[in-house]
Write a structure and sequence with these properties.
CATH topology of the largest domain: Isopropylmalate Dehydrogenase
Shape: globular
CATH class of the largest domain: Alpha Beta
Helix content: 40-55%
CATH superfamily of the largest domain: Isopropylmalate Dehydrogenase
Low-confidence stretches: none
Number of strands: 12
Strand content: 15-25%
Strand order of the largest sheet: 2-1-3-12-11-4-5-10-8-9
Structural class: alpha/beta
Number of domains: 2
Distance between the termini: 20 Å
Largest sheet: 10 strands, mixed
Radius of gyration: 20 Å
Oligomer: single chain
Bound molecules: 3-isopropylmalic acid, manganese (II) ion
CATH architecture of the largest domain: 3-Layer(aba) Sandwich
Mean pLDDT: 97
Number of helices: 11
Length: 349
């Protein structure tokens, strides 16, 4: 029995989690585990109604769950930053979810905008540091609103934070990947403090993982190669900001936001799983968004909880439905509604 906090959040988040839960519920009957879901109405609507983003009492409750299943955060009527910082980033920081794990995998038959590349070329995982870097909130304004205004936004990189992220990436690469190649994505030619620390730590702990081949690339070059030679990558480890950026690019080459999922992890503690796309206000309530991202996030959650077989079988069902039934992975072009897609996956399972 797993206690799951379900946070639909904003916009299409509600449709996403409904579809994801549909498949998780089908899995529990089949694989002999039970989910005990409790829903929370955090997000833009609650904020506008009550002024609350993430009450302390709710945060305390969330720590008692086995996992958190999140839809999306971001509301068109709420100033950018309030919900993102007050809810999503706050959960990542307060729960110390120091890894953001984002698989980039192209399933057979799925359209990729990258010409002449197929499933054998696009199959890697990004390990994004999730609690430091430019996301730490360090910095501030000086002389705000004047012509001499100064805005400073600092990237915080601690030896502790960098090392635990790199160790996770090495461990993951060794345990879960066949090729066992780990690429550090940085910018050592310009960010000579932050990525000096990353690179030094990378080469210091690397020898403890002799099975893992080490590689380094600058973030701009990675953007180029993710399009030109995605087959070069197996596991990419990087800081928070670069990880944010390159995983949107990754989502596009694997078929779009409709299928991109991620896990915010603290191994051994409550962790949070989500589609990586946003709340997509323009599609909200229409029943046309692709729920595969949420279904895949659910599969990642089961894997994290130790339900490996259920997780793999969901992934297989997703791959099969993508290849054989959906016309496209894009919202409104699937040939099925959001609910129908989740039914197809549940039935296949
Ligand atoms: C993501 C999102 C978030 C981020 C936003 C919504 C704060 O883009 O999960 O990638 O920047 O991390
Ligand atoms: Mn992002």
């Amino acid at each position: 029995m797993y206690k799951i906090a379900v946070l639909p959040g904003d916009g299409t988040g509600t449709e996403q989690v409904q579809a994801g839960m549909r498949v998780l519920e089908a899995a529990q009957d089949k694989f002999g585990f039970k989910l005990d879901p409790v829903q929370y109405d955090l997000g833009g609507e609650r904020y506008m109604r009550t002024g609350e983003v993430l009450p302390e009492s709710v945060l305390k409750e969330l720590k008692q769950f086995d996992a958190i299943f999140l839809g999306a955060i971001g509301h068109p009527d709420v100033k950018p930053g309030i919900l993102e910082k007050g809810l999503l980033l706050k959960l990542r920081f307060e729960l110390d979810l120091y890894i953001n794990l984002r698989p980039v995998k192209l399933y057979p038959g799925v359209f990729t905008p990258v010409k002449d590349k197929g499933p054998e070329d696009i199959d890697f995982v990004v390990v994004r540091e999730n609690t430091e870097g430019l996301y730490s909130g360090a910095g501030g304004f000086l002389r705000k609103g004047t012509p001499q205004e100064v805005a400073v936004q600092e990237s915080v990189n601690t030896r502790f934070g960098v090392e635990r992220c790199l160790r996770y990436a090495f461990d993951y690469c060794r345990a879960k990947r066949r090729r066992k190649k780990l690429t550090l994505c940085g910018k050592t030619n310009v960010l000579t403090y932050a990525f000096d620390l990353w690179e030094r730590t990378f080469s210091e702990i690397g020898p403890a993982y002799p099975e893992v081949e080490r590689d380094y690339a600058h973030v701009d070059a990675i953007c180029m190669w993710m399009v030109k030679n995605p087959e070069w990558f197996d596991v990419i480890v990087t800081d928070n900001m670069f990880g944010d950026i390159i995983t949107d690019l990754g989502a596009m080459i694997q078929g779009g936001m409709g299928i991109a999922a991620g896990g915010n992890l603290h191994p051994g503690r409550v962790s949070m799983f989500e589609p990586i796309g946003g709340s997509a206000p323009k599609y909200t309530g229409k029943g046309i968004i692709n729920p595969m991202a949420s279904i895949c996030a659910g599969a990642m959650m089961l894997d994290f909880l130790g339900q490996t077989e259920a997780s793999e079988k969901i992934e297989q069902a997703v791959a099969e439905i993508c290849s054989t039934r959906l016309k496209s992975l894009n919202a409104g072009e699937m040939g099925y509604s959001t609910t129908e897609v989740s039914e197809l996956v549940a039935e296949r399972l």
